[in-house]
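Field guide to reading this record: the first block holds the primary sequence, the second block holds the structure written as C-alpha cells, and the final block holds curator observations. Each block starts with its own label. This record concerns DNA-binding response regulator, catalogued under organism Streptomyces colonosanans.

BLOCK 1 — SEQUENCE
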Amino acid sequence: MPVPTRVLLADDHALVRRGVRLILDAEPDLAVVAEAGDGAEAVALSRTTDVDLAVLDIAMPRMTGLQAARELSRRRPGLRILILTMYDNEQYFFEALKAGACGYVLKSVADRDLVEACRAAVRDEPFIYPGVERALVRTYLDRLHRGDGLPERTITDREEEILKLVAEGHTSKEIGELLFISAKTVERHRANLLQKLGMRDRLDLTRYAIRAGLIEP
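BLOCK 2 — STRUCTURE
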C-alpha cells in the first residue's frame, strides 16, 4: 500500500477541524497527522512534524491562513497548500495563489470538493471549484474589456500582520514582541495604515479587519 499523504489541518474552530478530519481520514490515501488552532501554530508544527500538505482556514487568530501560507511557502517550498474558507471572494482567491496555495475550497462544499482538491495538490495541479472558475473568467474578461488590470493590494504583508494584531486588541509592545520588531516600528506601521486607509483609530481598523476577513466579528 502507498504511504498516505500526511496532512496538517489548521482552523480555529475545533468542530470544523473534527468534521474536516473525518472527511480526510476516511480516505485511504490521506491522513491528518497534525492539527493547529491558528496560523502561527501551523507554522510551528510544520517545523516539527513531517507533513506533505497543509489545509489552512483563512480567518484565524494571531496569523491568518494567507499569512501562514506565505510563511510556509518560504520555509517549506515543497509543501503543498490548500486554502479552506467560507469566503467566496475573488480577491482572496488571487491572494491565496500569490501566497503559494495551489487550491481554494469553500467550506460549504468541502464534503464534495476537499478530497479531490487534496489529491490535485499532491499531483501539483491547481484546484478551483467549478462555480468560481466561471465567475473568475467572466470577471477577468470584463476587466480586460474595460481596460482594467487585476486588483491591487492596498497594504503590505507586514501592515496586514500588524492590522490583524491591532484589531485583536494587542498593544504595540505585544505586537513588537510577536513580530520581533520595536514598539516604535509598530507605531509607525500603524500610522501608515491609518493614513493609507483614511481611518482615525483602532475601532476603524478593527472594522476594516473584519470586512477584509482578517478576524471574525
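BLOCK 3 — OBSERVATIONS
The beta strands are 5-10, 30-36, 53-57, 80-85, 103-106, 127-128.
The chain has two domains: 5-129, 157-211.
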